[in-house]
Structures are given as structure tokens and as C-alpha cells.
Amino acid sequence: MAEAAGGRPRSAGTGISGRGVTSPAVWEVLRILGRNPAVSITQLAAEVGLHKSSVSRLLSSLREEQIVDWDERTSRYRLGLGLLALAAPLLAQADVIVAARQELESLVERTGESSSVMVWNHSEAVCVEQVVSAQPVKHSCALGERFNTAESASVQMFLAHSEQQHVRELLRDGRVKRVGSGRGAESVESYLGRLATVRQRGWAVNASETSEQETSVAAPIWDSHGLCAALMVSAPSYRTSTAVFEEHAIAAVAAAARVSHRMGGSPPDGVL
């Protein structure tokens, strides 16, 4: 059974994914409450365009999840503290963006290449911040762009610090994809060995494996709870020899360590 905020069990009929709560009306109700500090059920029903009884059932489900709160004194509704639990991952991302911004700029100045912050979304690395190289030819990604290729440097970094069985499941289910055999795909066990190397040395490299035009390196960012993001440097392959991307890796690891310090984190014992 899924759990709501605070560890309370979430029933199948009253959860956010439960019957009657997935209607677009839910989002309209939340938007209205976001614009107003306190709203009556009559006002909500009128603005959403539903009968009061339907809105009442909807609000009852949201109250159980603490997504909305009801003021007995005024008989009005407002947004609840349960939203903070839902927003916590986004707030954490905002923290790492702020903490990393200066280091991204310094990395671009030092390496001349684009640098970005990546976070993990269960089976994808997502770009949440980036400083783009000023060079005419460069590699960059759009904010919000997602990567689920096993050979991607940021994906390697996150999987290197995941349970091996979970990595096997992601690969087996295709949620994390491998490059084709024509691109030198490895066996799963060999790939797990590669992740062990990433974990031990403290950085990952994608040496033109997902794109012949790009070489990228990634280093881990830690907060008080564990691995929270990866710092990545991406460059055109034609100007990124082994010696160059190793220099990028050293710079990324140092920058990521400074961000980790700001985030109050450090790698586990035995991990770089």
C-alpha cells in the first residue's frame, strides 16, 4: 500500500490517483486555492462548474491527503501542508541549482565547454540548469531535457550509486536503454563492472558512445541524504582527447565537491 505524507497509509479510493480525484477539476480547484487564501465550497463549485456535492467529495479526498485544509471557523478551504511533501523534490532541485550556479560558470570559464546540473527522475537524468559555452561549436541540452541511455555520463553516475538489482531491472524493462550492438554494447554484468569503476574513481565518461559528436563527463553532487545531482561537462568530440576529458573530469569533481559542501553533503565512506 502506498503511503501519504508522514507515513500514513493511502487508501485506493481516496488517494490522488483514486477514483474521482484524477479529474481536471482537481487541478482547477488547486489553481483557485492558489490564487485565494480561503475559498468557500459554494465559490469553488461555481468557478469549477460542478455541483457542490461533487466538489465536496473531491475536497474530502484532498483533505485526507492534506493537500487542502478546511477552516472550521470560517467554513472555507485553503491549500494544505501536504503540498510541501509533494513539492519537496522540486525544492531540493532548486537548492542544488542555487548552490551550483557559481561552479557552473567557473567550469565553463576553466574548460571552455558547456556545464550543467542533472537530477535523477527514477529512470532518467534531467537537465535542470546549464551554462552554455561561448564557443561557436559547442554541445548543450535544453532545460528539462531527459536522458535514459545507459552510456550517458550522468545516467552512469546515478546508476553507479543504485542497487545492482534495480539497475538490472531498469535495463531489462527498457526504461534505461543501451546503445546498439554496432556501437559496442556491453553485457549487463560488464556494464555493472563499469558502474563499479565510476563509483570508485568518482566520475563517469561518455566518450562519443551516445553521439559521435559529443564527449561528456559527470561528477556526483551529495547532500545530507545522499546523491542528489550530477555536474556534467559536455564538449564536441573532435576537440576532446582522452587527456582533455580527464582534465574536464578533474575540474568537474572538484566543482561538484564544492557544491556538495554547500549542500551539507559528502560521499559515503569508501566512495569518492
UniProtKB/TrEMBL annotation:
SUPFAM superfamilies: GAF domain-like, Winged helix' DNA-binding domain. Residues 23-81 form the HTH iclR-type domain. Gene3D superfamilies: 3.30.450.40, Winged helix-like DNA-binding domain superfamily/Winged helix DNA-binding domain. Residues 1-20 are annotated as: Disordered. Keywords: DNA-binding, Transcription, Transcription regulation. SMART domains: HTH_ICLR. One of its GO terms (biological process) is negative regulation of DNA-templated transcription. It holds the Pfam family IclR_C. InterPro entries: GAF-like_dom_sf, HTH_MetabolicPath_Reg, Tscrpt_reg_IclR_C, Tscrpt_reg_IclR_N, WH-like_DNA-bd_sf, WH_DNA-bd_sf. It comes from the Bacteria. GO terms for molecular function: DNA binding; DNA-binding transcription factor activity. Residues 82-265 form the IclR-ED domain. This is MarR family transcriptional regulator. It comes from Kocuria coralli. The lineage of its organism: Bacteria, Bacillati, Actinomycetota, Actinomycetes, Micrococcales.
